[in-house]
Amino acid sequence: MDPQEFLERIKSLESEALAGFAAASGADALEAARVRFLGSKGLLGEVSKLMAKLDKAARPEAGKALNGCRERVSSAFGAAKARLSTEPEAGDALDVTLPGRRLPAGHTHLITRTSREICSIFEKMGLAVTEGPEVETDYYNFEALNFPKDHPSRDMQQSLFLEEGLLLRTHTSGVQIRTMEKTRPPVWIVVPGKTYRRDDDLTHSPMFNQVEGLVVDRGITMADLKGVLAEFARKFFSESTKIRLRPSFFPFTEPSAEVDIACVSCGGKGCRICKGSGWLEVLGCGMVDPALYDYVGYDANEVSGFAFGIGVDRMAMLKYRLDSIGRFYSGDVRCMRQFPG
Ligand code: DAH
User: Fold this and answer.
1) In the structure, which protein residues have their CB atom closer than 6 angstroms to any atom of ligand 1?
2) Whose CA is nearest to atom 7 of ligand 1?
3) Which parts of the chain are beta strand (E)?
4) Ligand 1 test: best mutation among 141, 208, 285, most atoms within 8 Å of CB?
5) How far is the CA of 329 from the centre of ligand 1 (A)?
6) H-helix segments, 167-299
7) Start-to-end CA span in the chain (Å)
8) What is the 284 CA–ligand 1 centroid distance (Å)?
9) Which atom number of ligand 1 is nearest to the Cα of residue 286?
10) Ligand 1 centroid to residue 75 C-alpha, Å
């Protein structure tokens, strides 16, 4: 056989095969082309048998051409296979009439939602949202709030210290001082934020959330404090919610009080939730101790004020009836998903 003729056979076989693979429009067509060109009884096999009919001298060159041809045809087959695996087949072309797939949408966490609910009730009464740092100095967290040097909450057992004089704030009350330092009265603020203590049980988490309130203005009395908190309880829980104030102590308020709400579960008759008392303790408050005014340069003869601190986690547990604070922080979305915000 004429070597030239052999080379031409290979060339035309190659262009036919390449066109065949490129045109294959589905898995079946591709397989048929594979059998036709690369199969054990296929055209490439047939042509290679013709080698035997060539002169010995012409064989090396013919063999080389044949191998090159086989490589290119094989890779054309591979490329066609890859193309078909990503392309939809004619039968399952895009159906634009199908409804779209809904992407899962998240929502705010119940604690975030509760904190915002609390703040927005106070915002409607004229208090402005303010924030402060979570890493706080001993001065703002304790000293300027009139905590004596040997006060138990300055103890390492409860507070998480980072270094001498620097800790994760144990409450949001330090923002009272930070704000009064920066502004002249009147001050009407609410301060949402994370707080930290070494506590961990059904109702305590080492990280929890508070909303602090501070109103300092001319002629503010305890009646204003009680009125604001009673209104808050009605708006947050329900219009019929009653509150009561019990004497208490905080270093930065004088007098100080704990506020109870009539039990959200039994309405005051006494049940398991309120341990039979009919009341639930929800927050601490009081009239700003004039000692604080000395730290920030306010004149105690001109202004007076009240402050309060609300535990957001506790409020959320009471309002949404959760049995453990761990529900908020365990990362198990099955619980939080019940409260889309
Ligand atoms: N800082 C207090 C605490 O974390 C709560 C508190 C009580 C805040 C009375 C106040 C207040 O502003 O007046 O336990």
Assistant:
1) 171, 173, 212, 250, 253, 284-286, 307-309
2) 284
3) 128-129, 135-137, 160-163, 166-168, 187-196, 207-217, 243-250, 253-262, 279-288, 304-311
4) 285
5) 23
6) 174-182, 222-236, 290-296
7) 84
8) 5
9) 13
10) 75
* Nearest Cα residue to atom 6 of ligand 1: 309
Sign of CA dihedral 306, 312, 317, 323: negative
Q: Which residue has the tokens 């067509």?
A: 29
The ligand 1 atom at the shortest distance from the C-alpha of residue 212 is: 12
Nearest Cα residue to 170 out of 149, 154, 191, 185? 154
pLDDT number for residue 61: 85
CA-derived radius of gyration, the chain: 39
Query: Which atom of ligand 1 lies nearest, measured to the CA of 173?
Result: 1
Q: Are the C-beta atoms of residues 237 and 267 closer than 8 Å to each other? A: no
Ligand 1 centroid–CA 190 distance in Å is 12
- Count of C-beta atoms within a 10 Å radius of residue 176: 29
Q: What's the gap between Cα 286 and its chain centre?
A: 35
* Buried residues in 193-230 as b, exposed as e (16+ CB within 10 A): bebbbeeeeeeebeebbbbbbbbbeeebeeebbbebbb
User: How far is the C-alpha of 98 from the C-alpha of 147, rounded, in Å?
Assistant: 66
* Spacing, Cα 170 to ligand 1 middle (Å): 10
Q: How far is the CA of 260 from the centre of ligand 1 (A)?
A: 14
- Residue 146 CA to residue 102 CA, distance in Å, equals 55
- Whole-model pTM: value is 0.72
The predicted-structure confidence for 4-61, as pLDDT tens digits, reads as follows 888 888 888 888 888 888 888 888 888 888 888 888 888 888 888 888 888 888 888 8
* Three-class SS state of 213: strand
At 43, list the tokens.
């055209």
pLDDT 10s digits, 148-189: 888 776 765 688 999 989 999 999 999 999 999 999 999 999
